[in-house]
Specification:
The complex is a heterodimer of chains A (669) and B (318).
Chain A: H1 3-19, H2 29-54, E1 59-63, E2 72-76, H3 78-101, H4 108-111, H5 115-127, H6 131-149, H7 158-184, H8 192-197, H9 202-220, H10 229-235, H11 238-263, H12 272-292, H13 296-323, H14 327-362, H15 373-376, H16 378-391, H17 398-411, H18 419-451, H19 458-461, H20 468-486, H21 488-503, H22 530-551, E3 556-559, H23 577-592, E4 596-600, E5 611-615, H24 619-640, H25 647-668
Antiparallel strand pairs in A: 1-2, 4-5
Helix pairs in contact in A: 1-2, 1-5, 2-3, 3-5, 3-11, 3-14, 3-20, 5-6, 5-11, 6-7, 7-9, 7-10, 9-11, 10-11, 10-13, 11-13, 11-14, 12-13, 12-18, 12-23, 13-14, 13-17, 13-18, 14-16, 14-17, 14-20, 14-21, 16-18, 16-20, 17-20
Chain B: H1 2-35, H2 45-55, E1 58-61, H3 66-84, H4 101-121, H5 125-156, H6 161-169, H7 177-193, H8 212-215, H9 221-246, H10 258-285, H11 294-314
Classes of the chains: A mainly alpha (669), B mainly alpha (318).
Chain lengths: 669, 318
């Protein structure tokens, strides 16, 4: 297949959108649409992977669309091929999942028309080769996903989520628009090839970096621009949440990579510093908030923020190494970033699918009303457990492999000459380690509260296993999480052309090492073998079980819980999500979020129930956004007076404005 | 032949840590009892306990899921694999390259992850309290451990524990500030991770401040035996790790002959006994902390680790 074929396939996706408006009498409309999207995405994934593995040369195409003097440029190289594979694989998994999940949709007419264009727009962003097509597709992606966020606009806080999302998306696109404007300079040629040929001056490049951090960072969820993400991602239907968290954030990172590593020309040494600082702060803030929330999908959305932070740290490291001429170290950090991008798209989609399965089975997202689901949904539970283990970086799953690479990259950084970086990187490493440990706690909480224990509500007691489509989609992703974890060498080698494109160096081939081990720098320095660790754990667990069952006892009796002799039959006596997080809230709560606990304990003899109130505040709202909204409100109030002038006042206002503008023009020239 | 020999050494080491684990726990208990002028249980009591537990019937709570029965074996496997990668009497472990110190930390993290899930599976309040507190300690102990790993890796130029141990045997080490900080940090992490006083009390049941015992409260029979054995393995693992990094004397270098290995084994058991006695002495001389004081204690380890790493970043000599 060629690029033209790929664009035709994307055109097919775009056409599926209006097709979904067909009268709802058409039977199986939802299956037809999702099936169509699935087939196209499988095709596109195959194409992208085939190009990637064959090392195909870049391919470009110009269509006579868009701006008349510019046309629409498309191009696929190793970088866009990789992201194309991630987008389309994620979309294929999501649409296959939706073959089952979509049947439970109460208002399919609000979801179906927007889903295919959303997927198409993400494809187009990745393939765009001029700023116009890029921004247009970026905006289409934002709008289509906004429509999907608003699909259930009557539920809960979704209207507010959509509102905040559209505001932040507009801000992000605006920043990108300015970034491309600065890149384009006075000539105004917006093709990426032309932009690449004219690297801007150092000051302008710094400004473009800041704008790209704001524009792509707000879409990806960098602190403090993350606020829309935990509102919007959970509000959409679960397969769309999976796409938004697992894939759309990656498209944002693609935008960042394209601008900063490709179009912006040679980087300055300090660029890595703000990226790493933002990344580390994002990682810790994201996971701490994930620990505080009870809504299953919101926890996952916050954890997305954490992972984006981890990725940005790795990107910053790569840039720092690259600018200091340490090619192999830069390649290691960049490989780690891309590997983590791949991993996160796998396990975050898996976890959102799992939350969708819970939602289908119980109609409940609040962990505080779930519990004991593993007994009723054994397969979904198992897949969710794999996802939770992978995202908590447990060996031998894939999350560990990429985090291990990032730590290895950090360990190479003392050789950097800059003192800023020397002082920053140890702190960043500590924050990453902290975030990794907190992620473990977060997912013990998520899985332990919702899938283990006793059901806390009627809905959880009546849960049933979900259908085969949903299970199959989750199963494939869970298997891939394991495969990518035990065969990291193959992934690293597959990533090497992209790494070479971005930082101009590549890691040594890993698959030659034997025993499927990876050694990023040198074998004497560090190596890891996921396959062996997996085999060791599996064999020693099986061996222990076999020996004990064979030689000792395998008698089992089922009895009421012991609980130190004081079992409480009321499921409400179990640990709740709030109580599980309480120790961590106490330790970190003081300085990160203003968590306030209010206990109202009645005096002895008083019959009124005791009350416990917990309030958590996202400080970012107070520090960053409240002043802005207050300023806008104030300005609007002041300007409001202009609405109630007489006609004479208006006329004199217009006249004054005209005089002022003419004067300005006269002085200017 | 050389392959077979190193394989034999690797398997021998794995079996030795497994066999020595209950003994060390028994030894610590005995010394503790003698320090309190009690007679204490016999040294071999932990073995008898384990054998008795494996022979007993397992009682499983009605609300438990299938995971409850699988987790003890997973916890044990993860801990044993981690322990097998720590040099005990010889630095040249055959499979040392398959997982480095970061992976060992993560393997112990996996064991903790599984154990915390096990605590929540039955749905009792004690299990929840244990899991929640264990994870809170872990959020500080794990980064502390990683920072210590970073320090050691930056000193020795490798994250492979065998290579680090071999480097520590060489004269290139010298006396370094960062090494001292890392040692204090690692000892604190070891105390916290093994649920010893002052963070947790391994000898209590039914006490509101307990952590580890609360998580495993619902376990019985062979499952409990697996969990007890993993806890004992973990103690041996940390002692071996501290020994091979900071007290590497007597450790047989890679590719050593049988004589060196015998010396290494003798030195190893001396170190185990010494560490056990020190641990018992420390435990009898301090009081247990309130739960919310423990984060300050473990936080010290994190700060020491960060400081040591920072020192390594700014100076090659420290």
């Amino acid at each position: 297949m060629t690029l033209a074929g790929g664009l035709v396939a994307i055109g097919g996706l775009l056409a599926l959108g209006p097709a979904a408006l067909a009268p709802s009498r058409v039977r199986h409309l939802s299956s037809l649409i999702y099936g169509g999207v699935f087939l196209i995405c499988v095709l596109m994934t195959g194409w992208a992977l085939q190009r990637l593995f064959a090392g195909a040369p870049p391919e470009a195409l110009t269509l006579p669309l868009g701006l008349p003097w510019l046309g629409a440029h498309f191009r696929i190289d190793a970088l866009s091929g990789f992201f194309l594979a991630i987008v389309d694989f994620g979309a294929a998994a999501a649409s296959f999942y939706a073959l089952g999940y979509g049947r439970h949709e109460k208002a399919p007419g609000r979801v179906l028309p927007f889903f295919p264009p959303f997927v198409a727009a993400m494809n187009l962003v990745v393939l765009a080769d001029d700023a116009y097509v890029f921004l247009l597709s970026w905006e289409l992606m934002s709008l289509a996903s906004w429509a999907l966020v608003m699909a259930h606009h009557r539920e809960g806080d979704n209207v507010r989520a959509g509102y905040v999302y559209i505001l932040m998306a507009t801000l992000g696109t605006f920043a990108l628009l300015l970034a491309f404007g600065l890149l384009g300079g006075a000539d105004g040629d917006l093709g990426f090839g032309a932009l690449r040929g004219h690297p801007p001056s150092a000051a302008v490049a710094g400004a473009v970096l800041a704008l790209a951090l704001i524009g792509a960072g707000s879409k990806a969820g960098l602190t403090p621009l993350h606020i829309w993400l935990p509102l919007a991602h959970p509000a959409a239907p679960s397969h769309v949440s999976a796409l938004m968290s697992g894939v759309m954030t990656k498209v944002a990172i693609y935008g960042f990579l394209r601008i900063v590593f490709d179009l912006l020309g040679p980087a300055a040494w300090w660029w890595g510093a703000p990226m790493m600082a933002a990344g580390a702060a994002t990682a810790v803030v994201g996971v701490l908030f994930a620990l505080l929330h009870n809504d299953l999908k919101r926890v996952l959305a916050y954890s997305t923020i954490e992972n984006i932070g981890v990725i940005f740290v790795a990107l910053g490291l790569a840039l720092a190494f690259e600018t200091n001429g340490q090619g192999t170290a830069a390649a290691l950090a960049m490989t780690a970033a891309l590997f983590h991008i791949l991993n996160h798209s796998l396990f975050k989609s898996l976890l959102f699918f799992g939350s969708g399965a819970v939602l289908t089975a119980t109609d409940e997202r609040d962990m505080g009303r779930l519990g004991g689901l593993l007994n009723l949904m054994p397969l979904s539970g198992l897949f969710m457990l794999v996802g939770a283990g992978a995202i908590s970086a447990l060996p031998p799953l894939n999350g560990f492999a990429s985090e291990w690479l990032i730590f290895q990259a950090i360990l190479l950084s003392p050789s950097l000459p800059s003192w800023t970086l020397k002082l920053e990187i140890p702190a960043v490493g500590a924050l990453l380690a902290l975030a990794a440990a907190l992620a473990g706690a977060c997912f013990v909480r998520l899985f332990g509260i919702s899938f283990l224990g006793r059901p806390r509500g009627e809905a959880a007691r009546a849960a049933k296993e979900v259908d085969r489509f949903m299970l199959a989609a989750m199963g494939v992703l869970a298997v891939l999480c394991l495969v990518a974890g035990i065969l990291p060498g193959y992934v690293i080698d597959a990533l090497s052309p992209i790494v070479h494109l971005l930082v101009g160096a590549r890691m040594a081939p890993q698959t030659d090492l034997g025993w499927l081990a990876i050694a990023p720098v040198a074998e004497s320095r560090s190596s890891y073998d996921g396959m062996l660790v997996f085999l060791f754990i599996a064999s020693s667990a099986l061996l222990a079980a076999a020996i004990i069952h064979r030689l000792a006892s395998d008698a089992t009796r089922v009895a009421p819980a012991w609980d130190c002799g004081f079992p409480d039959s009321n499921p409400a006596a179990q640990y709740t999500p709030e109580s599980f997080a309480q120790p961590i809230r106490r330790v970190f709560g003081g300085f990160v979020f203003r968590s306030r606990e209010k206990v109202d304990m009645p005096a002895p003899g008083d019959l009124r129930p005791a009350r416990f109130d917990l309030s958590i505040q996202d400080l970012v709202w107070d520090i960053v956004y409240r002043p802005v909204t207050r300023g806008v409100q104030l300005g609007a109030d002041r300007l409001n007076r202009l609405q109630f002038l007489t006609i004479r006042q208006y006329l004199s206002l217009v006249f004054a404005a005209l005089v002022f503008l003419l004067l300005a023009l006269a002085i200017w020239t | 032949m050389a392959l077979l020999e190193s394989l034999a050494i690797q398997i021998l080491e794995m079996l030795i840590v497994l066999a020595a684990a209950p003994l060390l726990t028994g030894f610590v208990r005995k010394v503790k009892a003698r320090l309190l002028r009690k007679r204490g249980p016999p040294l071999l009591q932990p073995y008898r306990d384990l054998i008795k537990l494996t022979k007993k019937e397992v009682v499983i709570a009605e609300s438990a899921s299938w995971l409850f029965r699988a987790l003890p074996y997973l916890v044990f496997a993860a801990t044993w694999v981690a322990a097998a990668l720590v040099p005990t009497f010889g630095a040249g472990l055959m499979f040392s390259w398959s997982a480095d110190m970061i992976a060992i930390t993560a393997l112990l993290g996996s064991a903790r992850f599984f154990l915390a899930l096990a605590g929540m599976d039955v749905g009792t309040s004690f299990g929840g309290i244990g899991s929640s507190r264990e994870m809170m300690f872990a959020t500080l102990a794990e980064p502390a451990m990683l920072m210590i790993v970073f320090t050691l890796a930056l000193i020795a130029g490798s994250t492979q524990l065998s290579t680090v141990a071999a480097f520590m045997l060489s004269p290139a080490v010298g006396v370094r500030v960062s090494l001292g900080l890392a040692m204090v940090g690692l000892v604190i992490v070891a105390i916290a991770e093994n649920a010893r006083i002052p963070v947790d009390n391994p000898a209590t049941h039914l006490e509101l401040t307990m952590v580890h015992e609360a998580m495993v409260l619902e376990y019985s029979g062979r499952h409990l035996a697996m969990i007890e054995l993993s806890a004992q393995l973990k103690l041996v693992l940390y002692v071996s790790m501290i020994a091979c990094i900071f007290v590497p004397f007597g450790l047989a270098p890679p590719g050593a002959g049988w004589r060196d290995l015998l010396i290494g084994a003798a030195a190893y058991f001396t170190k185990l006994a010494g560490a056990g006695a020190l641990l018992a002495l420390f435990e009898t001389s301090v009081a247990k902390m309130r739960v919310f004081r423990a984060p300050d204690f473990i936080g010290v380890a994190l700060m020491l680790g960060l400081l040591a790493t920072l020192l390594r970043f700014v100076s090659r000599e420290m």
